[in-house]
Specification:
The protein has 379 residues and is of the alpha/beta class. The protein has 14 helices and 13 strands. It has two domains: 13-246, 3-Layer(aba) Sandwich (Aspartate Aminotransferase, domain 2); 249-378, Aspartate Aminotransferase, domain 1. The protein has helices at 13-23, 31-44, 55-65, 82-89, 135-145, 199-206, 212-216, 236-246, 249-266, 268-272, 299-311, 327-332, 340-348, 360-372; strands spanning 48-52, 73-77, 94-98, 120-123, 148-152, 160-161, 164-165, 172-176, 189-193, 285-286, 292-295, 334-335, 349-352. The strands form three sheets. It has an eight-stranded mixed sheet, with helices on both faces. A three-stranded antiparallel sheet has the order 7-6-10, with no helix packed on it. The protein has a two-stranded antiparallel ribbon with strand order 11-13. Helix 2 packs across helix 8, helix 3 packs parallel to helix 4 and helix 3 (55-65) packs across helix 6 (199-206). It binds pyridoxal-5'-phosphate. Pyridoxal-5'-phosphate (PLP) binds at residues 54-56, 80-81, 83-84, 126, 152, 154-155, 176, 178, 189. The active site is at residue 181. Belongs to the DegT/DnrJ/EryC1 family. It comes from Candidatus Thioglobus autotrophicus. The modification N6-(pyridoxal phosphate)lysine is found at residue 181.
Length: 379
């Protein structure tokens, strides 16, 4: 069976982990965590980057920093991972779902302004598949309405928009280092702080609501409880693993792009013949090949494809059940406007395996084989 995902191992992870074990410094924010912070600050250009134990944790920190209170609204796509919404719901916030663009499957920036009310606090663009949302428009809307922008860049390490790293354009951004992402530490994430006025509080929230980080820097002579917060920092073993991976971002992205391009070229004719649709990358975006997907005609054809690929030994998956059509979405969120692209595209999408070392030619042949069995009036 060809798995859908296989985490890339650089090879130096264990060496770093051994150093941590021998140092007897196992908690958070020691040497490797600091290396990762510096590296990510340099890479994103953000004034502060803080590792967390997941992107979910970074989103939760962002919701606290955005001062979300019960009834505050947060505009986001419905076509996203549950944590994008849950982080705000935990603070009593209300996710307001707007439709996505049919070309990138990202939030439709043209629909955001009409969803703004007197309760709106923030806009949360999600960069699907490492392809950026139309950030210039979103940032301009946010500026005019004095809203915070929190980028869910979970899938975005190694990708950029007009030369700017994903997650570094809003007030706050979040990255994921989950094993399914391009760069991983098993579980892991980071909060990118781009708005200098939020740095101090971000450090406090991450350190259980204490001013411990000021104490460590010698800015106060004892540390104490000053705000709400929790424990959001990873231990050094996780950071040591991540440090090995960060060294290889360019290399991993390059290898993934090669696979992505092979898929894209191989399916050119099928797209021309309107048998399937392929991903679209706007000129403003440099993507990171986080994902390769195909869009079929309808859900029946999609499920037939997934089943047929499984019989051929290749694991393919559909993606999000839109949040507005899940029990949690009914209870905690609401829709603004029509949501037909979200419903339609989520039904028709299939993700193909994409990992460094994948026998992509084999997968391509199986895909072409299965699609050749589609009949005009089959579905
Ligand atoms: C993976 C993912 C998350 C969650 O990341 P974790 O690190 O697993 O918490 C959130 N949002 C999006 C869009 C994701 O793809």
């Amino acid at each position: 069976m060809i798995p859908f995902n296989k985490p890339y191992i650089v090879g130096t992870e264990m060496l770093n982990i051994k150093k941590v074990i021998n140092s007897h410094k196992l908690a958070g924010d020691y040497t490797y965590t600091k290396y990762c912070h510096k590296w990510l600050e340099n890479y994103t250009g953000c004034c502060k980057v803080l590792l967390t134990h997941s992107c979910t944790a970074a989103l939760e920190m962002a919701a606290i920093l955005a001062d979300i209170n019960p009834g505050d609204e947060v505009i986001m796509p419905s076509y996203t991972f549950v944590s994008t919404a849950n982080a705000f719901v935990l603070r009593g916030g209300v996710p307001v779902f707007v439709d996505i663009r049919e070309d990138t499957l990202n939030i439709n920036e043209q629909l955001i302004e009409a969803a703004i009310t007197s309760h709106t606090k923030a806009i949360v663009p999600v960069h699907y598949a490492g392809v950026a949302c139309e950030m210039d428009t979103i940032l301009e809307i946010a500026r005019r309405h004095k809203l915070l922008v929190i980028e869910d860049a979970a899938q975005g390490v190694g990708a950029s928009y007009k030369g700017r790293a994903l997650g570094s354009m809003g007030d706050l951004g979040t990255l994921s280092f989950h094993e399914t992402k391009n760069i991983s530490s098993g579980e892991g994430g980071a909060l990118l702080v781009n708005n200098p006025s939020l740095v101090k509080r971000a450090e406090i929230i991450r350190e259980k609501g204490t001013n411990r980080s000021q104490f460590v820097k010698g800015q106060v002579d004892k540390y104490t409880w000053v705000d709400i917060g929790s424990s959001y920092l990873p231990g050094e073993i996780v950071s040591a693993f991540l440090w090995a991976q960060l060294q290889e971002v360019q290399n991993i992205t390059k290898k993934r792009i090669e696979i992505w391009n092979k898929y894209h070229n191989a399916f050119h004719k099928l797209a021309q013949d309107k048998k399937i649709e392929r991903p679209f990358i706007p000129n403003s975006c440099s993507h990171n090949a986080h994902m390769y997907y195909l869009l079929f005609k309808n859900i029946k054809q999609r499920m037939y494809f997934i089943e047929s690929m499984k019989l051929k030994g290749v694991d393919c998956y559909f993606h999000y059940i839109p949040l507005h059509s899940s029990p949690g979405g009914w209870e905690y969120g609401r829709i603004h406007g029509g949501i037909s692209n979200t419903n339609d595209l989520s039904d028709r999408l299939v993700r193909l395996p994409l990992w460094v070392g994948l026998d992509v030619d084999y997968v391509i042949n199986q895909v072409l084989d299965v699609i050749s069995t589609f009949k005009e009036d089959n579905f």
